[in-house]
Amino acid sequence: MNNLQDISRIILDSKKIGITYHVSPDGDAVGSALALLNALKKLKKDAYLISKDIISENLQFLKGAKEATGNLTSATEDTSIVVVLDCGNYERISADLDTFKGSIINIDHHVSNDNYGELNYIDTDAAATAEIVFELLEELGLNFNEETDSIKNIGTCLYTSLVTDTGAFRHSNVTFRTHTIAARLKKIGVNNTYIHQNLFDNKSFEKIRLIGKALNGMELLLDRKVSLIKIPISYGNELGIEIGDTSDIISFGLQIKGVEVAVLIKEVENGTKVSLRSKDKFDVRNIAERLGGGGHVKAAGITLKGIKLEEAKDKILEEIEKELL
Ligand SMILES: [Mn+2]
């Protein structure tokens, strides 16, 4: 593995730098990418975002979020490096890099990362990729004691990543380092309440009704140790909305007493997306990997192409049952 000093040197030596993340970028992916983007611009580097995705509504308050238009999906001709953040597998990058001739720098915290970069920095102890980005930015020469708007904007991106990847500092991935970085960002004036409100108290009425529909259909299975939520495409059609991110819906499944694993299966255009969460020692990454997915011990996911909702449900429950017994 490479170190942050090497990566920092290569970034500083590069003329044009593309930044991207995993498809359907979450708060950590977006926060990490925008923190790096804003930081490189502050350092007068020619940096830009490559993204097949448009950034979700609740992350639009972050500076630079509008740069992801969904139109720039590959690196421009004159780009020397592309930094990929928070993405474990080459196939999941929100950019087409097959014809890219420069170097890929892979910075991530997923255990399942397959080291697809020319340079790789994978720190699985980091609760969020943003913890690594914070350290990289210091290495690049940014001063997180400086109480300027530009540093505060970068800090807001990083803090957002920390909040979203730790369940608002609730999950067991939180460390002394997580809180130390959060404290340093708070000290320069990052507004945690503003971030929380934008992230969580910002839902449309239709989204709340979608949650209602999803919870109404929730099942408790395998001795009430597994909660299962199904979201067919028709739910979105009935409410007139795009279903989008459902990570807030699956968390309801874990709130039930006695439940060890929460499952959310979502119908998508080409098949089914499965999300898994666990409470204690149950390893959902193991389950996800057996079905071609990946993630973390307590949060993982799989895309099952060409597989219908009911079939996906049977497959996933079969695998969970083997582990629970
Ligand atoms: Mn992450």
Structure in words:
The protein folds into two domains: 197 residues, inorganic pyrophosphatase (n-terminal core) (Alpha-Beta Complex); 120 residues, Diaminopimelate Epimerase, Chain A, domain 1, CATH 3.10.310.30. It is built from eleven helices and eleven strands. The strands form two sheets. The protein has a six-stranded mixed β-sheet with strand order 6-7-8-9-11-10, with helices on both faces. The chain has a five-stranded parallel β-sheet with strand order 2-1-3-4-5, covered by helices on one side. The structure holds manganese (II) ion. The site of manganese (II) ion has 6 residues, from loops.
Helix content: 25-40%
Class from secondary-structure proportions: alpha/beta
Small molecules in complex: manganese (II) ion
Whole-number average pLDDT?
96
Query: What's the end-to-end separation, in Å?
Result: 38 Å
CATH class descriptor of the largest domain: Alpha Beta
Unreliable spans = none
Strand sequence of the main sheet, in spatial order? 6-7-8-9-11-10
Spell out the helices and strands N to C.
HEHEEEEHHHHHEEHHEEHEEH
Which term fits the overall shape?
globular
Tally of strands: 11
Radius of gyration: 20 Å
Quote the beta fraction: 15-25%
The CATH architecture of the largest domain can be given as Alpha-Beta Complex
Quick one: biggest sheet? 6 strands, mixed
Helical segment count: 11
CATH topology of the largest domain: inorganic pyrophosphatase (n-terminal core)
| The CATH homologous superfamily of the largest domain | inorganic pyrophosphatase (n-terminal core)
Number of domains: 2
